[in-house]
Amino acid sequence: MSTRLDKIRALLPQKGIDALLISMPENRRYMSGFTGSAGYLFITDKSAILGTDFRYTEQAAGQSPHFEVVRISGNWSWLADQIKDTGATRLGFESHHMTVQSYHALSDALGQQLEDTKPALVATSGIAEQLRVYKDAEELAALQNAVDVADQAMESVCPTITVGMTEKEVAWRLEVAMRERGAEGPSFDTIVAAGPNGAMPHHHPSDRPIQAGEPIVIDMGAKVDGYCSDITRTVCVGEQDEMFRRIYDIVLGSQLTAINIVKPGMTGGECDELSRTVIAEAGYGDNFGHSLGHGYGLAVHEYPRVGPKAEDILEEGMVFTVEPGIYLSGWGGVRIEDDVVLEESGARVLSRSKK
Ligand code: ZN
Ligand code: ZN
């Protein structure tokens, strides 16, 4: 955590601020180690303060040795005190997380308590996220655990799916299986989309009974020690039809092309293109309407961006999903998603469920 603190401090001048207020839970946890559900970090060149309420002060002191823990109440007076102590003049806040209501409350409270010495409030976004994009060995181990739990749940539940079972029932079985294997919970709402429902990439599981031969898109992930996995398999109960095989093979070919060719130094857009070209050449370019993938970590969607025209450079130590799909209205969809880490020689796949 001390190196993370050094790194974020180095970014402050570049962002035109001398203090940063972190409110986003994943960033708070990443920077401090504190896993509680409420609190703020206040970081300047010299100070590192973790403000949290009385429910968490003891836990925070144990988890965040590099931060001074202060107990806060609702009126931002703890922050005004820190600004007085540090003389901060330009306070960055996380504009991609703080609500407009909180922003106004913060601005008013600092105005009342600091008057002329109220710092300028500077909207920032993505500062801590810039650090989170590179995963260290400890994070990779946590991610592998999260992926393993999702894989095991997928492998244990898929063979138990029968005709007539509802999408909701399958989703529940998957969530139970993840919990039984140590997940804190699913990393997002499990998607089970059978038959025509599979044409909607983010369909919510329904009471529709699964029918023989139709494609079933299962997109799920586990959260383990705060880290998220995200995998998708498309299966079918009974005989697959000709259509299923054809579409499945195109999607799999598209996915393997990107996984086998992606290298450090490519952009997210170039990686997306590798996969998209295969689908387009098979005649289904218009039926793959979402990005190829996304980073994952403490949040299920993070940087780098891996989609059409994404300029993010993919580098060693980054992790992202590779999840092409083809969606055909009235028939359904096929999506295959694996979680990879980028190494010097290329992508190493963390997920191992059968495809
Ligand atoms: Zn997914
Ligand atoms: Zn995903």
Notes on the protein architecture:
This protein is of the alpha+beta class and 355 residues long. It folds into 2 domains: 2-132, Creatine Amidinohydrolase, Chain A, domain 1, CATH 3.40.350; 137-349, Creatinase/methionine aminopeptidase superfamily (Creatine Amidinohydrolase, Alpha-Beta Complex), CATH 3.90.230. Helix content is 35%, strand content 22%. The chain starts with a helix and ends in a 6-residue tail after the last strand. The structure holds zinc ion (ZN) (2 copies). Residues 230, 294, 321, 323, 337 line the site of one zinc ion. One zinc ion binds next to loops.
Question: Would you kindly provide a brief summary of this structure?
Answer:
It contains ten helices and 19 strands. With 355 residues, it is α+β, with helices and mostly antiparallel strands.
CATH superfamily of the largest domain: Creatinase/methionine aminopeptidase superfamily
Shape: elongated
CATH class annotation of the largest domain? Alpha Beta
Note poorly predicted spans.
Answer: none
Mean pLDDT: 96
- The CATH topology of the largest domain corresponds to Creatine Amidinohydrolase
How many domains is the backbone divided into?
A: 2
